[in-house]
Amino acid sequence: MIGQTLRLKVAAVSDIAPGLRHLRLVAADGGKLPPAAAGAHIQLVLAGPGRSFRNAYSLVSRPGARDAWDIIVRRVPASRGGSAYIHEQLQAGDTLEAGWPGNLFAPVRTARRHLMIAGGIGITPFLSYLADFAMSGGEHALHVCCREAEKDVFAPWLAGRSGVAFHWDADGHRLDIPALLAAQPAGTHLYVCGPAAMNDEVIAAAAAAGWPARHVHCEHFGAAPAGGAAFRAFLARSGVEVQVGEDESLLDAIERAGVAAPCLCRGGACGVCVAPLLEGEAEHRDHFLSPAERDAGRLIMPCVSRAKGGRLVLDL
Amino acid sequence: MMHSDIKSRPAYQALEPDLAGSRHLLVIEGEALPPGRLAALSNTFAPVADSLHTWLTGAPAAEGIAGKLWQLGGVEDVLDTLACATRGYGMGDRLYVLGTEPFLWSVATAAALIGFGPGQLQLEHAGSLRRRVWCTHCHGLTENVTTGIVACGGCGRHLLVRDHFSRRLGAFMGVMVDAEAPGEIPAIEEVFA
Lengths: 316, 193
Hints:
Helix content of chain A: 10-25%
Shape of chain B: elongated
Oligomer: heterodimer
Radius of gyration of chain B: 18 Å
Helix content of chain B: 10-25%
Shape of chain A: globular
Structural class of chain B: alpha/beta
Number of strands of chain A: 18
Order of helices and strands of chain A: EEEEEHEEHEHEHEHEEEHEEHEEE
CATH class of the largest domain in chain A: Alpha Beta
Largest sheet of chain B: 5 strands, parallel
Number of strands of chain B: 10
Order of helices and strands of chain B: EHEEHEHEEEEEE
Number of helices of chain B: 3
Number of helices of chain A: 7
Strand content of chain A: 25-35%
Radius of gyration of chain A: 20 Å
CATH superfamily of the largest domain in chain B: Nucleotide-binding domain of ferredoxin-NADP reductase (FNR) module
CATH superfamily of the largest domain in chain A: Nucleotide-binding domain of ferredoxin-NADP reductase (FNR) module
């Protein structure tokens, strides 16, 4: 369903904390939305100054819900435009273009136990996990690391949910990640979603505790830093040269030029937008290509990666 | 007989300690051990000897084996001990099993029930090629099958033993050999000695 779009209407907007806005979205035509499972996200097309942005947000509504989708958007200080637009301009009754739901972070159904670790707004995919486990009875625990002031923000989504613990930066309240990981029984799957530094720390701690990599799952959010020095990219098959600005991604520039570029997560995770690189050296920022693929220098993920030199040639 | 065009037929590799693991359990079917294999395994597992337990069935001489040695009676003893371990099993545990296929998969399916994932388990085949056979008709299991055609222990039908393997059941598929022409049963030969 990649490529198909949906028209959504904003049914409700509410600020649940400073910088955190909850949106309820319904189908603009009043019909039913496509179902989405726990861990799914949608891409929203958001107007920004002079151009539009496509941002991905986790659905926090009940898995399978077809009447409405809920998302929670944190205002990013150095917003490219997407989150600022949602916080400053979007109002109930407005309509938005969205992609079909995608899911790169579904819970593993064969797991004996699900251990979730969230950093801040990284709790969002786990809100749908909790709803799923409440239905399925899956054994689980969610550890949320956040600022103390924010620990009650998600209370409306946690009512009646079990196995949730909050941690913050104060004596007696910090999460001892190595101890937590060492204590998990065989059959546990670990899911982590938070800032890059926290994700890396948890993944490294899991490896140190002997966790097989296939039991460790990570969703990177927020944008891998999309900006950087401006450069040019020549799209060989289309015969188009695009200028990639400092504050936009290569994928944004390709889309602006009207060249078809399938994508799903826009965060360097899913691999859908991977493109053959014919000339030039890439600055890889994705989580998808293997070290060997990076070294080979024949592929690039235009949603997050950029040019090391001033110009790239892509087979697009 | 260890190779097949049927993709479900498992392939096995020589055991090697996974240095990423934090606790290691080596389970060996003593009756299936080729001469010298135990000494070679002790060398291979020397790097993890401090966190290694070895369970050995059938009680062959086992001097100088790496790690802490426990001698057990047979596969039932292994399965009971595995299920009853009071310390529980964690994500850093690694399980290594050596033996015939019925032994390997008895332990592997019991370990899967406990929660061991494929990344925590290694299997190495040794000894007889005898198979456990699952009857597609009565769903009964027939143990220690060494012939290409076997009378099902459950329903008595003569089954053709295929290479088609179920990891869930730890058994090869057996299908009625004379379903099309009742009574016409080919010569029964030992092929899984």
